[in-house]
Sequence to fold (232 residues):
Amino acid sequence: QSVLTQPPSVSGAPGQRVTISCTGSSSNIGAGYDVHWYQRLPGTAPKLLISGNTNRPSGVPDRFSGSRSGTSASLAITGLQADDEADYYCQSYDSGLYVFGTGTKVTVL
Amino acid sequence: QVQLQESGPGLVKASETLSLTCTVSGDSITNSYWSWIRQPPAKGLEWIGYIYYTGSTKYNPSLKSRVTISADTSKNQLSLRLSFVTAADTAMYYCARHPYFGMITTGDWFDPWGQGTLVTVSS
Fold:
């Protein structure tokens, strides 16, 4: 019942740039609600990667960047590294609920 | 360093009540709002609800009739109860902290999260 749609998977070679889209609607991202991103490495808890569309918490490498436009948001990973292989989720707000994206698995080739 | 640890039975029988605890260390639960979030196998993340230590709560309407979240300030713990469970409630359950001191907003994110605890509902 996720209201935010992400591609199931993206892949790239080490050093490359990949982007993950998060497509919403006029009731969530399009309504101006902030988008946040999480990384979940295998067997670990989700970790905040980007808050408030573009803000990196302390300790998150600047290889990770976020953006928002219209009814969508994107997470970009530059200089892809082996330990970036993980699941990534976007999150926003919609109709009184905190909502999440469908999740994207990033594979490093 | 704030740490959250979920605990509870890993197996619950259908139609019974799921009960989980989230123990917080490194922070007082009186400082922030706290949420429970779950993820069924091969499905997306679902926000269950939040609580403030005063007892103020808000639940996902899809679960509202079955869910109760509570807080125990003496133990610095949060609790989740979900009644009349079915196989659809089989999931990894997480607790997580909201970012602001004493305030809840539509722009909230969750940080940190607990490691999660897997609950399986058996028929």
Summary: Chain B has a mean pLDDT of 96.
